[in-house]
Amino acid sequence: MNTAEKIIIAFILFLGLVTRFPGLGYSPPHLSNDEISIAWDAYSLSTTMRDEHNVFLPLSFRSHNTYKAPLTAYLGVLPVMLMGPGDYAARLPSAIFGLLTIPVMMALVRLLGGSRFMALTGGMLLALTPWHIYSSRVALESNIALFFVAFGLFGFLIAIHKKNSVIALTISMVSFALSVYAYHTQWIFTPLLLAVLWLYFHRRTFTRPEYYLGAVLFLLLVSPIFTDYIKNKGTYARANTEIFTHEPGLDRQLKNPGIMPFQKFLLVAMSITGNYSSYTNPGYLFFDGLNLLPRGDPYQSGLFLWPFLIFLSVGLFRLPRMFPRHSTFIYIWAALSPLVPSLTLNAPNQVRNLVSLLPYTIIITAGVAILWKKYPTRFLYRAVMATLIFVSFFYFCAVYYYHFPRQSAQNFQYGYKQMAGFIPIHYQDYEKIIIDPRFGDANVYSGVPHLYIPYYTRMDPRKMLVRVENSRGLFFDKYEFRDINWNSETPAPNRLYIVPRDNPPPPGILRAVQEVMLPDSKTALKAFAYQ
Amino acid sequence: MVPALVLIFSLAFYIRLHPGRQTPAVYLAFLSLAFTPLLHFRPDYHTVILFLILFSFFLWLWSLIPRGKWVVIILALVSVFWGSLLAGKIVSWPAAVDRTRLVFDIPTYKDAVRLHQRDARYVPFPVRRLLFNPSVYTYILGNNFFRFLTLENLMGSLLLANLYPLGLGLAAFFRRPEDFPRPFRVFLLLLFLQITVSRSPDKFNSLYIWFPLLAYLILRGARDVRLKAYFLLLLISIIFVLPRPV
């Protein structure tokens, strides 16, 4: 590696760093529903070794009527212990693994047969990809799983290249197993990818004992989580709740006794195809898939920058030229990735489909390399290419770092963190703090303030473990989390009411003591106390 | 009757341009074209059927006659242009433009441009007007077009099997456009425009009139397909075109 390459790698990593780490608490504007659940579990584990629901070191974290994979919560323990509960502590593991995916990506391109130029291009493209930037800045299980899949593949390819290195193979299998612990898509995707690798490199894998031992190691490592799943079968385990057959229309048709088995097969096949189609829709991938702004805003960003569409088109057709030995594997990888998300509800979902990011980026890299090579001396052509990428990246940055936090804050339950800043100062003034969990226009949504408020006020997690939950609401410490109906509510002194903007108390008895505004200057929450 | 006529004209157009011995995959493509749902579609405006027949006839005529080709191609262009606008319901018979069907009149787009101009305080106002302005419609048009190009839309109208030769045909066109009939570029541009300017393009209505063009691309690509893979895809496709349960 020469000095110029080292400088370029340093620049790529710097780019990855500045796009992923600064302002983690600002954009996205607030911890989301899923993030706060992971963050609270990490915080709770750090002090009690138990999750929100009082389960000792769980393998599946119950959250919002379903279950989450465990790794992200466990990885969050250390940052919470070091930094205390907060946005950075919650999002730091994802940002770190996001950054680490960039050098792994460069190594993967090289190991798959790409040139050094292509490896650097691959790293640069990943560093600039909106999908990866967004995923790295959220406490996202799938982003951590993505790293472990990439690292597992890296280890496997090293093992293949370095004469069946046992160490590399062991690292690979551990990494693949960790990906299964990181996110549910990987429950099916990782074994599928391993099967493809086994078949693709069959001359090695079927003849050398190391690979059989590797497979056994992988199975042993993942067996606890699958045992846990079998124990939870029939409950709200994620694999039971998120499967595509629960789509209301399809569910109704499949339960129709007049439908023959062949027709059922056809319905299922069509549903999967429809989902697969939505995951591979170029409009979704390159124009509006990231869904940062409210519906109907034309300045949406795609999962990839839109000029990448040109490179993907070229790369798809010319992949064998750039990766002569492993193009078939890359094609299979790219085709396989959206398959598992297609088996789930509510397609397309950019989080579940994150596994597609790497093969798509490799194909885009091939497209860039082809076009770069085709016009080696045309400065104008390269300048146009660079300008298109720069302009689209500028728009993405403007939208992501400025307009998105302002326009989409409400979707992130914005306001609870800010309200939590008010509570500790006045905590002693009130006997009860009653919080209405609804939010949004006409209170259409129900949030999870019972996690936000204790997390940001750094409440002792032991108090949460002895909470009372019934049809009226959720109760612990001084807190009551329940819908407030002002017709039946009897306000009393020493009570603090925190309500959404569309559920103010009738005038006269209570007075507003605190107001939290959304970044677009609308009221999010208001706190009321006795006159 | 109409599908048979259109198919015959489309195949005749291809054979006329590429006479001689055809590969087995091309014969298979003849068969698979006969199965395409697009060919058997009945458009909302029946007049469009006439335009489709005219378009496929003019293409064949264009390949047939040695002189006066430009007159025929103008006729083909007029029929396909008018027919595509009717099929896409952008105009209603005979020529009344329905602005509500166009992508340009959506109020949320205009509001968003104004909102971003007002909000983008990180740059001075003149720069904001440079950054956020109606040029965003080019992005919207691109999005509209590529949102249409989904596997589901193309599979539903052309069959899964035909996507393979269609992809190869398009790749051949972009690699060596000079190998294709000259008017092809104009036709493809028109197809692109018809899909992009429509607010919600429908897979059948939008592609119906373009069947002869798509058939030609499929047949061109079929020369380079792997026969076994194409045959397998055709078998799978036939399962998919079986009647859906209700």
From TrEMBL, chain A:
It is a multi-pass membrane protein. Coiled coil: none annotated. GO terms for biological process: lipopolysaccharide biosynthetic process. This is Glycosyltransferase RgtA/B/C/D-like domain-containing protein. The chain crosses the membrane at residues 88-109, 116-134, 140-159, 166-199, 211-230, 262-279, 299-317, 354-372, 379-402. GO terms for molecular function: pentosyltransferase activity. It is found in: Cell membrane. Its main location: membrane. Keywords: Cell membrane, Glycosyltransferase, Membrane, Transferase, Transmembrane, Transmembrane helix. It holds the Pfam family PMT_2. The keyword Membrane applies. It comes from Candidatus Amesbacteria bacterium GW2011_GWC1_47_15. GO terms for cellular component: plasma membrane. Residues 68-225 form the Glycosyltransferase RgtA/B/C/D-like domain.
Automatic annotation (TrEMBL), chain B:
The keyword Transmembrane applies. The chain crosses the membrane at residues 43-63, 70-91, 154-174, 207-222, 229-245. Keywords: Membrane, Transmembrane, Transmembrane helix. This is Uncharacterized protein. It comes from Candidatus Amesbacteria bacterium GW2011_GWC1_47_15.
